[in-house]
Amino acid sequence: MANLILHEYARSGNCYKIRLTAAHLGIPIERREYDIMAGETRSPAFLDAVNANGRIPVLQVGDDYLPESNAACCYLADGSDLIPHDRFDRADMLRWMFWEQYNHEPNVATLRFWYGWVGEDNLTDLQRAMLPAKHAAGEAALTLMDEHLSRTPFFAGGRFSLADIALYAYTHVAEGGRFELHLYPAVEAWLARVADLPGHIAIDA
Ligand SMILES: N[C@@H](CCC(=O)N[C@@H](CS)C(=O)NCC(=O)O)C(=O)O
After folding, report:
1. Architecture per CATH, 4-77
2. Among the atoms of ligand 1, which is closest to the Cα of residue 101?
């Protein structure tokens, strides 16, 4: 495999997904840290060379740059047991990863960021107006996960896959977004199952 560099902000769940995938597969990755609060991913140099979308994570593969956390996880895990070999299960894994980006991350991760990084007193009027809707949408996502996980140990194909990694990243720190995980017992049991797997690593504090 070509030399791998993860352009990241270590406390980001999106960046953690990629490190967790690499840890499970025993793939070494060099890490390059950016201060997103100081706008380091918005500099002309970053926009020009790393990601025109101004965000991390970006997985650098040799001279090529791959933004989007779930795409980077797919690159690393290609051909491994973290991606189901069965055609339907593989598509089902992707279903949960797309769902994570549309229904989960924009609510659960965004509230963690607003409360934990921006600070409640510093939110704009628009962000403050969005709080109830973000909470409701995050709770709906956790409820749907809880219902699914009451019927199956992992998200797709009955076994651990990238879908679990994608969803674990921000769910296990959802309390930072003021979500109450004890309300979702099947989610809590799944979080413990994932954390107990060999190869698991913690997010950077
Ligand atoms: N859909 C993207 C989301 C990337 C994203 O939102 N990155 C955030 C940190 S988690 C970021 O770079 N924020 C800095 C900024 O927007 O300036 C992914 O999954 O990688």
Report:
1. 3-Layer(aba) Sandwich (3.40)
2. 1
**Which atom of ligand 1 lies nearest, measured to the CA of 56?**
12
Q: Whose CA is nearest to atom 13 of ligand 1?
A: 55
Block means of pLDDT (10 residues each) for the chain, 205 residues, are 95 98 98 97 98 98 98 98 98 98 98 98 98 98 99 98 99 98 98 98 93
User: With contact defined as beta carbons under 8 Å apart, do 112 and 170 qualify?
Assistant: yes
Distance between CA 169 and CA 23 in Å, rounded?
A: 14
Query: What's this model's pTM, rounded to 2 decimal places?
Result: 0.98
Helix (H) or strand (E) holding 154: none
Chain mean position to CA 47:
22
Distance between Cα 23 and ligand 1 center (Å): 21
Q: What is the residue extent of each domain of the chain?
A: 4-77, 87-195
We find that the CATH architecture of domain 87-195 is: Up-down Bundle (1.20)
CB of 179 within 8 A of CB of 139? Answer: yes
Contacts of residue 140, defined as CB under 8 A and 6 or more positions apart, other chains included, come to 103
Strand 64-67's sheet: what is its strand order? 30-33, 4-8, 58-61, 64-67
Are 72 and 31 a contacting pair, CB within 8 Å? no
How many residues are given for the chain?
Answer: 205
- Name every protein residue with a CB atom under 6 angstroms from any ligand 1 atom: 9, 12, 14, 36, 41-42, 54-57, 68-70, 101
